[in-house]
Every structure is written in C-alpha cells, then in structure tokens.
Amino acid sequence: MSIPPFRMSKTLQAVRGMNDLLPQDAYVWQFFEDTTREVFEQYGYRLMRAPVVEPTALFVRSIGQVTDIVEKEMYSFEDSMNGEKLTLRPEATAGLVRAAIEHNLLYDGPKRIWTSGPMFRHERPQKGRYRQFHQFDVEALGFAGPDVDAEQILMLARLWQRLGFKGVELHINSIGDAAARKLHREALVSYFEANLDSLDEDGKRRLYTNPLRTLDTKNPRMQQLVEGAPRLADYLGPVERQHFDGVRQRLDDAGQHYHVNPRLVRGFDYYNRTVFEFVAKGGDWELTIAGGGRYDGLMEQLGGKPAPACGFGVGVERVLMLLTESPPPVVEVLDAYVIFSEGQEAAGFAAAERLRDHGLCVALHATPDGRVASFKSQMKKADVSGARFAIILGAEEVSGGKVGVKPLRDAEMQVSMTLDEAIDRLWNVTAG
Description:
Helix content is 36%, strand content 20%. By secondary structure, the protein is an alpha+beta fold. The protein has two domains: 23-177 and 237-325, BirA Bifunctional Protein, domain 2 (2-Layer Sandwich); 336-427, Anticodon-binding domain (Rossmann fold, 3-Layer(aba) Sandwich), CATH 3.40.50.800. It has an eight-stranded mixed sheet with strand order 1-5-6-11-10-9-7-8, with helices on both faces. It is elongated, with a radius of gyration of 28 Å. 34% of the residues are buried.
C-alpha cells in the first residue's frame, strides 16, 4: 500500500471526533474510573478484557444488519495481510460474549464481569458523542432471574450516588420475547403502512426489515406518529410480564424511583425483556449516560450454548461532562518532590528510589538541559507539582546524613532529619 505524500511543515492533528486526554484533566477521569471499579467490585463483578478489533460478522450478527451502527457507523476494513473483514468495536457486549463462548467461560457456572475501554462509531461529533468514545461495560452471563436485572440497575444508581449526581432519571421497559415482538412487529407494519406518507426515509426503508427501530427515531416530525403506534406492552405474554413485574418489585423494595417508558427499545437487536436507561437532564439538554438490558438469545445466536444474560454500558465522556460541572476535589498524587544542589544528583536519585521502595509517590526534579537549577527554581517546581512535601538534599544535609523536609501544603517550617525518619513522617501523613 502506497502512502500519499504530505507536507512536512503541516502540523498533524487528532482525527475529528477522537480527543486527547491531557494531564490536567486526568484527575477527574481517574476519580470516575476508581469510583466505578470500586462499585462494580462491591457487587462481585470481575475484570475481563477483549480486543478492540473483531470480525465484522460479529457485529452484523449481534447488533443487527438493519441498524444505524452496522449500516452507517462502523469503522470496518479488510486486513491487507489475509483479506479478513474486521471492525473496530462499536460496543463491548458482542466481543465479551464471543470471548465467553470461545473460552467456555460458563463451564463452572454463571459469571459477573466488567470491562472498560475505547469504542468507535463514525457519528457526527457533538456534545457527548464522539467517534472514539469510552465505556464501562458490565455483563452478567448465565443469570435468568429478574434479580440480576434489578441488581445492575441498583448498582448504577449507587454509582450516581457515589459520584454526587442528583436528578438522574431511570427509564425502564420490557420489549418481550420473540413471540411478543413478532406480533407487535406485524401490528407496527400495518400501522405504519396506513401512515406511509408520514414516515421519513429511514422509516420507509426499515418498514419491512426492522420497524421497531422507528420507535426510537430522533426525528421530531415523527413523534406524534410514534406516540400513536401500537405498544409492545399489549403483546407481552404471562412469563414476560411476570419477569418485568419481578424487576419492578425489587426496585420498589429498594426505594428506587423509575419511569416505565413504553417507547424505550434500545438500539441493538439482541435485547429482549428488560431494557433500561439512566438520563441526566439540564436546563436545555438531556443526556443518556448509561443503558442496557437483557439479551437472553445472544450466546446461542453467536454459536454458543444457550444462556441468559443481562448487561449495560456507561458512557465515560458523558459522565465526565457532568463531573466537570461540579468536579471532585483534586487528589494529591505526589507524596514528595525531591530537589538537590549541584553535586548531589546521585544522592537525590538514590533518595527518590528509597522513598519509592516504601510505596511513596515521588517525583525527582529534572531539567531539560541537564543542569542543576537553583533551589528557588526547584522549590517553585515542587510547589506546582502538587506534592505534599519537598525532600531537600543540599551539600550540608548529605554530609550530615540528613535530608530537609519542607511541608508544601501548610505553613510548617522545614526540618532536618534522617531519610528513614522522613519516610516515617510521610507515611504517617499519607495514612492519616
């Protein structure tokens, strides 16, 4: 493959819709990641990873051929080495299920798993929607009862509470099983056929392939038409109703408020029974920050043994938009910043390593030109580093077997002590 020439003088920029995370913004991201991991682990979910590149057929079979994602948004390509048709994952569930089948993950019983990482969709970039975006993804594989559906919803509600979010709305619905959806589909086709002139181009194109997707339209001109469409709830069988009632009962018992939204269908074909979304609202905006549901047929659909499952995804960038409106307190990352006078470079290096040996987070002063800067300049760097203490090694301290310890976050005076004493002091502060 030939690479087209480019002007060397041109400054390269990130691909549109794929954003950089800069160090000054990373603390919010880390706070969210740490909090999310802690909540998931509280509920017994364990980390699992899958590749970001999968066979294109995986997403066609799981998400559905007649969906916006498969039709318009996937980053797909042919591997020039072997001709394989591959796709950058647009979501995480299909890859995790593929991995669970490939490695016989359920051989000894159901599993609760989670993952996180980048996803890719060729969408029009806008607030909260990017072409490379990140998700936390949770899956409960092999669990059939409504208790797991409710558990995952309550786990998300606990996460919002831990993050300090207020006013996040929970929308739930049941989209039934195959028989119910077949009857509903037939009713939808008849209804939309009678209102053909009111359908937009997507609606007309999907009329006979996937009319359910029309209920999820974002076209404001079609909202009145959609509101009058047959409701899937009217076609649910007794088993499906019992399952949904079980979910609602557990949410009621937990005191979790929710809104039953009969138009909620989610965007993937693999869903059945319970579907849910958490929606955050502002003055003039509304943002879905998490969503998921049950997908009992996907394991078998992808070639595995039949097994029920339920899961959800959390949009990281969308959650971060809410966090940046009321950001968490900046956590001090560094325990110490080590500075030294000219000729004491080796002593400073050795002291930094000793501190790290004891589990402390330490930055060693360094300059681009390799020359030792003045104490005044180094102290300025120490202060802006966010470190709690400056550890100072001048000629006098080193010759006396001591270090200077200068608190940077309060008005305490600098004191001289041995490095072991300094380690003890820093640990006492860190622990308490």
